[in-house]
Amino acid sequence: MARRTKAESEETRKRLLDAAELLFSKRGVTNTSLADIAAAAGVTRGAIYWHFKNKVDLFEAMHARVRLSVDEIESEALSATDPLTGLRDYWTHSLLRVAHDEQHRRVIDILFRKCEYVDEYQTASIRISEWSGEIIHAMTGIYTRAAEKGALTPRFTPQAAARATFSMVTGIVFSWLAVPQLYSDDDEIVATVDIFFDALKP
């Protein structure tokens, strides 16, 4: 019985997150209330507080479902023939996931364009900034190894290459969400990433 109760609790949590995603995407975070989310999920408002402290906590849990893993970036990059190839493949696959995974794309769109990071959401903004910093730090280490192997152009320091890579990826995502016709098929995304990483080679 306890196992079933746990499963039901997890299902309720998932329904709340799914409902929040859809409403945040349609109305924006500020214009969506916890009561709206509860109604859309078919549960009481009290059920929300069983799983989440407040709307910010729910918002951060939504992000966690699609958040990139620093460990995955390092693992894929460092297991490749050379670090640049590993990073190129990782970011190509990540961008194609945004293109083809509707849930992933919806959450990224909410993070980029449907939330005002003011008042209580400043905390969420800080955590997103910290997560971004962790990714840049991990890539700096990867580019340091590439430089040691002579695989990174001396025009870029590892730190500059990491910052440029992060800016390239987030720039593609933001511009594509705003103007979808910029990248009409997978080949254009792949070509853009390839051009960037070719510029990092000696």
TrEMBL record:
Gene Ontology molecular function: DNA-binding transcription factor activity; transcription cis-regulatory region binding
Gene3D superfamilies membership: Tetracycline Repressor, domain 2 (1.10.357.10)
Domain HTH tetR-type per the UniProt entry, residue ranges: 10-70
Pfam families reported for this sequence: TetR_C_2, TetR_N
Alphabetical keyword list: DNA-binding, Repressor, Transcription, Transcription regulation
InterPro entries on file: DNA-bd_HTH_TetR-type_CS, Homeodomain-like_sf, HTH-type_TetR-like_transc_reg, HTH_TetR, Tet_transcr_reg_TetR-rel_C_sf, Tscrpt_reg_MAATS_C
PANTHER family registered for this protein in UniProt: HTH-TYPE TRANSCRIPTIONAL REGULATOR ACRR, HTH-TYPE TRANSCRIPTIONAL REGULATOR RUTR
Name of the protein: TetR family transcriptional regulator
UniProt source species: Magnetospirillum aberrantis SpK
